[in-house]
Amino acid sequence: MQRTLTTCFVLATMLLGFPLAGVVLKGDPIGQYVEFPPVTRYVRHASFSPFFFYLMALLFVCTTLLLALFVYTGRKKSRCATRPPHARFPWWGWVGLAVILVGWIVAWNRFQWLKPLQHHTFLPLWIGYILFVNGLCLKRTGQSLLTDSPGRFTLLFPASAVFWWFFEYLNRFVQNWYYLNVSHFTAGEYILFATLSFSTVLPAVLSTTRLLLSFPTFEIGLRKLTPFRIGTPKRLAWTGLVISAVGLSLIGVLPDLLFPLLWVSPLLIIVSLQFFTGDKTIFSPLSEGDWRTVIPPALGALICGFFWELWNWNSLAKWEYAIPYVHCFKVFEMPLLGYLGYLPFGLECIVVGERIQGSQIYQLGGIDDGTASR
User: Fold this and answer.
1) Residue 344 placed within a domain
2) Is residue 300 scored above 70 in pLDDT?
3) Residue 158: inside a domain, yes or no?
4) 132 has which bridge partners?
5) Closest by alpha carbon to 260, among 188, 332, 326?
6) Residue 73 domain-assigned (yes or no)
7) Would you state the pLDDT for residue 17?
């Protein structure tokens, strides 16, 4: 517990303090970084750059091919795996699907008689999604995060709100996304409605990760792949902390160059501190060839990212993007290469989620790898 509290304190101090210290030294007014609602746009982004675009496109293609290779290999290794008999799809799963459909219709239309509700469609859509995905997990394996431990699952919601507010704060220094049609909210109203919406992030990503693990391709096929061992963790830990400290201090000074740290620095800090304390990290199982702690969470966040962007696309209260150098080829409102950010974000979700759910995320009984029959 003490190690966890220490990690949280150091993480919060670095994420909150270092970017603010950097802009104070730069001489910027602090007020614009804590504005509610956040409607002022003060970061001027660099224009499109072919060099950076092709460089990021190469990274995008390599990452896509690598993920495809993992999935293909996992599917090949799990051919003989069997799942337990299907359970009944729960009634609350059907409720979740109905909420999604109604929420989607309301979000993408401008019914005058529903006008007061059309700024608030994000929350019901994602409550419906969470119920539906957990219903699918229950049907496939007889288990789900929601039903295995309802108390712990409920704790994900407040933790998620705090978790995402850190990303909102970091975004104030780079302004890669901004919100439309929220200026009519008072500061208190914005904080309340935003917090309720942010509370669904972790439950959605973790539930999607659990759903992926209900497939033998991910649950069985990723267990025994190529081992990946980290040689000098203490040296990597110092490197990660230095990069994070320097980068976060300069993120508001050089937002166009350092904006990727918004997605990477929390993970770097947490893993570096775990290296120092000797705790296991999400990368520790890789030394035994177990990639379940990395691939499913990354893909789970990417799947959620697709639906975040889809349902946001034609909503009334929404966000848009301003990403330097690579802002083109949009899929909904997000530039195609921007979807890369969801991959490390999924790892950060699983790191936080494991502190609450424990190993339950990976405990799926009844899936047989088929070795007994061979």
Assistant:
1) yes
2) yes
3) yes
4) none
5) 326
6) yes
7) 94
